[in-house]
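Quick one:
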Amino acid sequence: MLYENRKALREVCDKYEESHPDIKIELTYRETEELRSNFQSSAIGGSGPDLIYGPSDQVGPFAVMGIIQSLDELFPSSFFDQFLSNAVVRFQEKTWMVGDGVGNHLMLMFNKELISTPPESTDELIQMGKSLTKDLNGDGIIDQYGLVWNFTEPFFYVPWIGGFGDWFINDDGSPNLNTKSNENAFAFIKSLRDEHRIIPKECDYETANALFKTGRAAMIINGDWSWGDYRDKVDFGIAALPMVSSTGDFPTPLVSTKGYSINVHTTGEQLSHTIDLMTYLTSPEVQLHYVRRLNVQPSSLAALAHPNVQSNSLLNQNADIIKKGRPMPVVPELRAIWDALRGEYQSVLAGTKDPHAAAVESQRKAIDQIKTMNVVIEPGVQGKFIKGLLFLFIAALGIVFWIKKKIYLRSFQENKFAYLMLLPAFLGIMSVIIFPFGYNLIISLSNFSLRTFKHWEIIGFHHFASVLTDGGFYSLFGKTIIWTVVNVSFHVSLGVFLAVLINRTLPAKRTFRTLLIIPWALPQYIAALTWRGMFNQEYGSINLILNQLLNMSPIQWLSQPVEAFSACIITNIWLGFPFMMVVALGGLQSIPKEMYEASQVDGASRWQQFWNITLPMIKPVMIPAVILGTIWTFNNINVVWLVSNGGEPSDLTHILVSYVYKAAFNLYRYGYAAALSMIIFLILSMFTVVFMRRSKLDTVV
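Output:
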């Protein structure tokens, strides 16, 4: 939810709490993908929120996993009759979600101060876009664009496939991407950017949003969820996406609902309270409150009949736009189709593939990923053998404890206070390290996936074999090695250099030291998103500085594979060097000054002092820091995921740990992801042991 929507929801929840003083409603907000992954994780442990609010396409995966409840057993059929049919989400002949509004669809929004009448066709869109794309101050940088939107993401792209005559998914949930319509849509979007130049070269959701809100874009393709954010900031109008001139068909945006589902683990009295709250949150009075505050299209038939809705011109226009859309599929296979389409579409935009090749490959990838996502591996002899080993291991532990029971009990009786003092640390280590590690190991040996979410079984080393025989693993491993070596090398060299500099007598040394620690003190999430903004090809400060200082042409930092990977590395170097600097500074301050004074008497140069005194003396503190830095960098998903926006372009900026996340939460391959994470653990363990041994040998020599 955007901020204005959150405020409106909090208002209705506060009103409910006033009339139900024994009820406290806690609202926890997550971005859509984070909501899905977090809820899946919490559901594994039998927890999570009682009510889950989100888009309807999450229903399919959640229902198959068995982590939400069928609403048919909780509400009478008369309850569902109160809503529009597309607000009651059904899957596999059961009801799983009820929406408090309909739409959640894309449309053309225009700034009335710049446009009086929106374009009705793509020819008009291009003509109008060209006239409204302007360099206002003559510096060679576009200050106002005719059109902006998050065009690199499939959700914002697929309406155009419909406009060219076909649809991207068949009724049975199979992909329909190898079509002429998909090829033409690929080429059309690329032409808007490269030939007609009416859209920015790099534009994510936040960039498009900021340009439109500040009057630097005449039109934006966005959804009805953004109305509350634009209210009182832009005098905007809405229209359907313009008709494709070459076909005479209108683009078909995905129309869905955002609604409420109930956690399968919510039972008893808590379930009764949850049903009452859900009834209230979907009621006509609450929906009319959203109409007043946010202009949300209500799903309640009673709310739709209210005079305030009937006389609302914006909602009436929106109803006509909805008629041109198509229902959002809720099948789990949609995620695999999105993922396959996303990579190939971005390859077309990057210029590395032609539209035909991308359409063919996206169809192939989608079919393969759907097959992999839905496969259920049955336990065989290997699975029974692993189960037997686990049973013998647990039995052996029990026997050892039984044999030495008297020793353990005597030790406990004699040292009760010591054991009580150790208990918090023991519980912490068990819950944070030992149990998750053991659970992950068991999952890696199981068939835990989308179809076996609650009924998985041990199958053996199948996933380990899959990882090690997959050519993509070695490509990712090589990229991860490059990522780690480059980052750690810069972290250590910059950290030691700055530590040596700060350790000397300098004016304002404390100020410099504080400023240099700031990258480490900032939350990685905020820092990574800030750097992503600075790497924007047209508006980012990096390219502006390079242009002013070196007269360089803008670099496509976020839309080309090598440049995007380099952007991630630069960001992580900035974030990581302060840690090494602080560690090195601590080591430097422990070196006796007499050693440097004696070397000066012997005529040693500064370089000789550094090489023969400084490095050997700080080595004992730097070796553990290098090991920690290597492990942290090898497993640093935050920077790669946030700066590259989940592996863009075309999933070519992934490292091993980010691919683990994608396999687990985008494609529901939990067993495979767990096996890959165990292999990462073994790689880092081997590195740590070898590095420490070699370091000790070097120290002895």
